[in-house]
């Protein structure tokens, strides 16, 4: 393991094409930030993966976190970074972008790979879990929480049987100094605490102080691990909805199940799974974060250190049903997103620009006083910032029926509004996650959009923002 902890990675400002042949057309995978591409280093002929992100503070943070964790056998290596002005087709001007030169992971994503392995046994599941656990242990030992532990971010190096699996995508990773988040500052909490806290918060909105502390990002990583291990062992998720329409999102009945820790080990797939494997799942899917297993306990658990039975598992059977697997992945992704504590609190708006009727009134009175009590008609409140306006337009497209438009026109109007919102506010994690949840691919939606769900998610986002703006500073 090499340690980059004390070093800051300075992006090179020369053109990446001086040293690499980038294949702009071959896409290894696509995430919120766009496709990941293949490049060949001219001096050696070695191949790398190139992730291109717009040069923003969030991307710089991603690079710093990834750089600190890089060098571990189960973390995708980050070799170097370029800062280049790039203009992609369809863009009117070039933009400063950061290009991450990553270790090429050619063996596919975790669940996809397992869906093809018909001889997948509990012993394989334990070996896979150990590799993921070692990556998480490395991060947590550096006080970094990944906050986006999901199967799409666990990649195999190559297609050989011995291929290691490694963790990628540090887009949500952050230094976790164990800050206790209090409800007045966070619309989302660690799940299932997240759900309980939201409920309490709604009840207690009028009285601001809520004394009990909430938990840390690292325990969310452990919860995510629990869900991943459960799925590895049986092929379907531990918490699911009774309503088929919301199989990809967390609805009421599912919230209740998560909060109460209500899941089970259905006989058919689980009767042959060993007790130590179930013990790990129980200790990770433990509702109380203080009781939840830590990463140190996980890597020392007998299931990962002693002989594991070579029992065939049913998981590949479930995973090879593409629709099932996509639902499972989307659901886990939604779960991980809900657990994340947004980093908004530090970005409170200055009082002058807050759209708060009491403040506006106070400003008017002050202004009138300054102007020698000249009587003016009250000035209108300041217009909302462009990013708020853009999100409101998306909400309107989703929730206000426009009878005059046909289905195709409604879809176009929604796509235009979303594109504007993304342009104004792509650094907002909640906005981008809500869109990705609806299969937004950067320019359009891959699947049918659940406009009600999207509209409600964005309404909640703006509501959360208003709550923050109204906090006393
Ligand atoms: N080093 C790599 N080698 C091969 N494929 C990769 C590599 N890194 C990423 N990918 C592929 O690209 C996809 C997107 O990458 P990544 O998750 O880093 O991007 P993102 O835009 O941050 O995505 P997300 O939407 O998950 O936040 C991955 O799910 C994976 O399929």
From TrEMBL:
Any GO CC annotation of this UniProt entry: cytoplasm
GO biological process terms, semicolon-separated: negative regulation of TOR signaling; Ras protein signal transduction
Ranges of residues in domain Protein kinase: 22-304
InterPro entries tied to this protein: CDPK_Ser/Thr_kinases, Kinase-like_dom_sf, Prot_kinase_dom, Ser/Thr_kinase_AS
A GO term, aspect molecular function: calcium-dependent protein serine/threonine kinase activity
A Pfam family that the UniProt record links to this protein: Pkinase
UniProt entry keywords in alphabetical sequence: ATP-binding, Kinase, Nucleotide-binding, Serine/threonine-protein kinase, Transferase
UniProt xrefs under CDD domains: STKc_MAPKAPK5
Domain of life: Eukaryota
Keyword Nucleotide-binding listed: yes
Similarity field: Belongs to the protein kinase superfamily. CAMK Ser/Thr protein kinase family.
PANTHER family to which the protein is assigned, alphabetical: SERINE/THREONINE-PROTEIN KINASE
Protein name as it appears in the record: Protein kinase domain-containing protein
Lineage: Eukaryota, Metazoa, Chordata, Tunicata, Ascidiacea
